[in-house]
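Quick review question:
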């Protein structure tokens, strides 16, 4: 049954009908309900009491509940909430204060009442008014069915979590043992912003990302992460524990930033849950647990929530962030700084016009239009899904490269390549509708991720999206360098020998072991520039046996028709040597 847009049990509805029938004064109604279920100020004013009584006299509504999933609102089912509380109880946790920052329908509060017998006070905060009612109804129903259960003081606040003063609240609990529990929204600030939601923190770039990083998305963040860090700010110096259901990416970010933030949290754990089963969504998520008021710790132990098996530990080893602390110890010697800079491919956000295939020798764009333009600005293009083979010398896609470097004027296209200009200008509206602010104030048909490095004839590339620890050698096509899109990362070379030496090292077992110990398989991008720049090719060249390198060169020569030798190996090593080491070599001669 539903009333005031909230679900209500028959027992709770029956209680209201019988007990409120002759009560019209709000103070008496609230007093009755506080005695019955512990909730203080059940009705905030007389209008709420009147409205509830009026609705109860009408036929109960069966209107379908609104879908709030787009707001990251995935309500925790009662079984899961109870399993979380039971797990905490098994750890010996028995708080006297419960705080739920986004309490939803109250299932975690009910689970806490069922599992912890020393609770003195409960604080719940919820922005969505129907859920505030439903939480109150559910707590009332719980006490109707369990009248002998411990009855703490309960306050449910109808409040935006971002405006709630947790620091003021924390000052009340200096000598208490508290538990912060719940399930914050699984959504980012940009997603809520696109929905015109008011449920946003005042400062969207709370990690203080600067310049291009903030503009291109690194300033985007999960609302759950913001809430969790806000809770740390308020409660880190109080005795207690925190347990929140969040996306795995949030936990990784919290542990990563802990090196800088130094929050007083320890015993950090991640208990993986089946999001598809529990919430019907394909998102990797877990129960994040930590103890408050401890010396800062920088490692997280990962468990399976259902069988309690310990899977691995991740976090900081000295000054390196790793995904598997045990395995990392075997590969840490090659974790350093790559001597070549990894680059991201071209970004244009206009694939309908800028990318095309070939049909019967003609270019055809993604709008299914035949494209007749000059060949000079057309280059072969590879996407993440294309990087499957060890060597690639032809592409299925092509792209127009309008600039040689970011910000270059594009007026030259009109004069030197009129057919290309006419084609691009025909679709000017599509370019102008690109949403990213990086294109604002830039020349017509601008692209990003372009520079001298893009035109290196030989590239070694890897997909940022796929979980395959395999690098691809990209060869020129039609005597022109091949481009990659912005889901790919690459290093470029002027000669084939250096590219072959690099790919042999990068596809070695040593590199794979390192990458498996520093990457997270559930990340949106498994490989990033930051990760790839940690592969120290110079140290790797000294780790790999020369017999291994020679054998791999022979195999590539046979399979791909190369004629590569090791005569440039020493030059390759010198190219990778740091400046100081190069200077010492010169003086040594």
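Suggested answer, residue by residue:
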């Amino acid at each position: 049954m539903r009333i005031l847009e909230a679900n209500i049990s028959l027992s709770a509805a029956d209680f209201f009908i019988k007990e409120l029938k002759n009560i019209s004064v709000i103070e008496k109604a609230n007093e009755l309900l506080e005695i019955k279920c512990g909730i203080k100020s059940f009705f905030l004013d007389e209008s709420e009491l009147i409205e509830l009584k009026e609705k109860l006299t009408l036929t109960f509504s069966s209107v379908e509940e609104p879908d709030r999933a787009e707001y990251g609102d995935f309500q925790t089912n009662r079984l899961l909430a109870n399993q979380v509380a039971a797990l905490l109880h098994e750890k010996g946790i028995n708080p006297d204060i419960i705080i739920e920052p986004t309490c939803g329908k109250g299932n975690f509060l009910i689970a806490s009442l069922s599992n912890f017998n020393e609770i003195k006070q409960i604080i719940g905060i919820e922005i969505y008014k129907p859920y505030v009612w439903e939480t109150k109804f559910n707590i009332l129903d719980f006490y109707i069915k369990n009248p002998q259960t411990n009855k703490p003081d309960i306050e449910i606040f109808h409040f935006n979590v971002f405006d709630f003063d947790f620091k003021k609240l924390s000052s009340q609990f200096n000598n208490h043992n508290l538990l912060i529990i719940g399930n914050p929204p699984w959504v980012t600030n940009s997603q809520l912003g696109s929905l015109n939601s008011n449920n946003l923190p005042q400062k969207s770039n709370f990690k203080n990302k600067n310049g291009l990083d903030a503009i291109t998305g690194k300033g985007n963040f999960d609302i759950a992460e913001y809430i969790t860090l806000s809770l740390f700010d308020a409660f880190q110096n109080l005795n207690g524990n925190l347990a929140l259901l969040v996306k795995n990416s949030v936990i990784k970010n919290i542990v990563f930033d802990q090196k800088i933030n130094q929050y007083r949290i320890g015993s950090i754990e991640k208990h993986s849950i089946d999001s598809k089963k529990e919430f019907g969504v394909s998102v990797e998520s877990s129960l994040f647990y930590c103890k408050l008021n401890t010396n800062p710790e920088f490692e997280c132990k990962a468990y399976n929530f259902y069988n309690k098996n310990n899977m691995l530990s991740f976090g900081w080893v000295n000054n390196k962030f790793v995904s598997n602390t045990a395995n990392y110890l075997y590969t840490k010697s090659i974790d350093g700084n790559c001597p070549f800079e990894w680059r991201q491919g071209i970004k244009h956000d206009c694939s309908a016009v800028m990318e095309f295939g070939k049909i019967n020798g003609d270019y055809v764009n993604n709008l299914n239009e035949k494209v007749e333009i000059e060949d000079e600005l057309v280059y072969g293009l590879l996407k993440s899904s294309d990087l499957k083979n060890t060597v690639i010398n032809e592409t299925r896609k092509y792209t127009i490269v309008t600039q040689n470097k970011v910000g270059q004027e594009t007026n030259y296209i009109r004069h030197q390549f009129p057919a290309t200009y006419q084609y691009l200008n025909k679709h000017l509206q599509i370019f102008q509708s690109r949403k990213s602010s990086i294109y604002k104030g830039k020349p017509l048909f601008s692209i990003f991720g372009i520079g001298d490095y893009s035109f290196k004839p030989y590239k070694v590339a890897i997909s940022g999206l796929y979980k395959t620890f395999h690098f691809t050698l990209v060869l020129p096509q039609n005597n022109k360098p091949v481009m990659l899109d912005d889901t790919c990362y690459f290093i470029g070379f002027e000669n084939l020998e250096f590219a072959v030496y690099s790919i042999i090292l990068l596809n070695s077992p040593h590199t794979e072991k390192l990458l498996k110990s520093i990457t997270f398989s559930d990340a949106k991008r498994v490989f990033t520039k930051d990760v790839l720049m940690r592969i120290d090719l110079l140290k790797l060249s000294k780790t790999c046996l020369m017999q291994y390198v020679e054998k791999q060169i022979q195999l590539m020569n046979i399979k791909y028709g190369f004629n590569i030798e090791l005569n440039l190996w020493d030059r390759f090593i010198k190219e990778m040597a740091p400046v100081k080491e190069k200077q010492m070599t010169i003086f040594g001669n």
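Why it works: Residues 192-196, 582-589 have pLDDT under 50 and may be disordered. The two ends are 88 Å apart (CA to CA).
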